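Whether sequence alone determines local backbone shape is best considered at the level of individual chains. We regard such an encoding as a compact summary of how the chain folds. The sequence in question and its structure tokens are set out directly beneath this paragraph.
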Amino acid sequence: MGFFTKWKEKWSNQKEPTKEKTENLPVSSKEKDTTSHQQEEKAAKVYEKGLTRSRKSFVSKLQDLTNRYAKIEDAYFDELEEILIMADIGVETVMRFIEQLKKRVREEKIETPQELKEVIVDELFVIYVSGEILSSKIAYNDQGPTVILFVGVNGVGKTTTIAKLASRMKKEGKKVLLVAGDTFRAGASAQLKDWSEKVGVDFYGKEEGVDPASVVFDGVTLGKEKNYDVILIDTAGRLQNKEHLMRELEKINRVIAGILEQEPKETLLVLDATTGQNGIQQAKSFQEIVHLTGIVLTKLDGTAKGGIVLAIKEEVGLPVKYIGLGEREEDLQVFDIEKYIYELFKDFIGDEEDV
């Protein structure tokens, strides 16, 4: 059973509950079921809108390729390879993908590009999943505050991402503290403070030029004493000086471990999707200097090369935990590979009404 067949079955099971299904449920269960459905629908609409550019560019090229070839031949694979590379999936990943596709064509005796369409989507899905159990959930502490460290170069949307996540967590009932650990960039602390006021969470910071580890020490100590659920820490993004940044982040990790008796539960790298393969290189560089647990991919709505999500998983080996699909707070979504694949390729496989 292909990806789209499974997704259609799953989607049909997520339709709003009928009266018969809910009439015997307690009121709280009915409300929870309805709210969950509404959240799913809202998320699906954000994905649909946010992936419009990629769908119109990347997927339209796939459709055009399919329509131009009556039979599968070498020239078809050559063009497919080029389309996938241009979608930022990455050269090595694409080469392996094409070989796997050719293997399935031989084994399953597939003759036309039309027959191959869902196989292409299936194999792209497999690239991300790779037989692993992936989770985009934040690993919260059972006791004491959960510390989440954010790293990334300047200009990727790190500060606004922290603010959006803080707002989400606040709405989930969590007590949130933002800590301005980027004391190097002019105005970074003030910017984070402004965001804390906008989203209604607490803030801790000091003046520019102060040792970041001292800010983190005081901030995490405060967070522990005041029983915060989550502490979100911004850090400097001076990747051009790897050695200095490595020492800085190592010191911050030691400080946190000294207070909480454990290092941060999550260290999330924020990447700008519009930078394409340059973002992949940033991820590899940060992996050399800090233990990353996941990726936040911003500005995915601003690129026509939606394949970057697949490249990140394949080339860096890290799960994408959140994606930014617009400027609004709700446009930062928990990453769901099934929603992503479906919304990206639904026009390629079949009409939306078929779902």
